[in-house]
Amino acid sequence: MVRTGQLEAKKRREQILSLQVDGAGLSVRSRGDLQARVMIHKLCRNYMANLCCEHDFAGKLLTYGDFGPAAAWKHTRLTHSQFIELNPPNKQTAWVAVPGWRKERNLDDLMHTLHLGVALCVIPGLIIDHLIRTNPAITLDRLERSLLHAYWHHRAWCKENRVPYAPLRFNLARFGKESWGEKPELTTQYKAMIVKHLIYWSHAWLTEEGAESDILCTSFALAQFQYKLDTSPDWLSPNDKRETVDAGFAFLQFYQRLAFKNLRSPKQQYKLTPKFHYFCHLVEYIDKSARNVRYEHCYADESLMGQMARICNKCHALTLERTAMHRYRVMLDLIVLGSDQDDPEGP
Ligand SMILES: [Zn+2]
């Protein structure tokens, strides 16, 4: 009798082995953090340059922080061949030699774009803005104490909802707000998975606190975007796609409005980085492909890096490369064997 689970396991093993034979099995796409993208693809247009996007002319002149329907950068889209032509010859990515590769296959990663990017600015921005609006004469000392109170609420809320809470208490240093002129940004001491839960908690806290509608609309739209991804399968139905995309674009426009209103205030709350622009392209990608980007994020890759670091730590320096690769191969085999044993239809 043919067992579906065994066939699946065999197919997965063949896919993994095909990577070791030749490049035919390689998926024509790449993903990673911004630094890796710039290095691998030799991107002249990157988050540190005046022109920060490989898909259009967004940058310092045509602001990357405009997310309205008439944003100037939306009229300057680049096709794949235009992007290639605009790269200097010595700055051309080696990926042009990979059949089927196009710049659109450099995927924006949900973890680095949202959880380690956009959300790091949005969460402390909304919380601090709400605390200032509640008490306009608030001092930095008092703000620090209010953040600690918010932390205790966060901890209790996470325990009640059985999700991991941030082990590090909130304070001005960790919120990147040690002076009024600084635009807050959570430090990377907060891990990506914790930040994801902070998106949900911050909306719940702001709602309980009775925050003003522009703050609540922003936190709700972001939480709704994350919720749709968390509760949808790998490919979105037309209805789920519409709701996810609407929430993503609505969030960007609400945040843009808050940032614009706060632009000339002595108390700066809202940071707009190129990652917001990349987030906009991520939402466009969902709209075009109906793909749930949660299934393409880099969480597993980051875990693999941790495993590889543990393997390399236990290898001798002189034979590190060969031994690490052998042990990596053993680890892959164990994963495949494990999937065979986990097969519910197995013998
Ligand atoms: Zn762009």
List keywords for this structure.
mainly alpha, 3 domains, two-stranded parallel sheet, 11 helices, 56% helix, binds zinc ion
Short note summarizing the structure:
Helix content is 56%, strand content 1%.
Specify the helix fraction band. Answer: 55-70%
Query: In total, how many beta strands?
Result: 2
**Low-pLDDT segments:** 15-26, 343-347
List the domain count as a whole number. 3
Structural class: mainly alpha
- How many DSSP helices? 11
Oligomer: single chain
Give the H and E element order: HHEEHHHHHHHHH
Q: Beta fraction of the residues? A: under 5%
Largest sheet composition:
2 strands, parallel
Q: Tell me, rounded to a whole number, the average pLDDT.
A: 86
Rg calc: 23 Å
Give the termini distance in whole angstroms. Answer: 11 Å
Shape: globular
- In the sheet with the most strands, the strands line up as 1-2
Bound chemical compounds: zinc ion
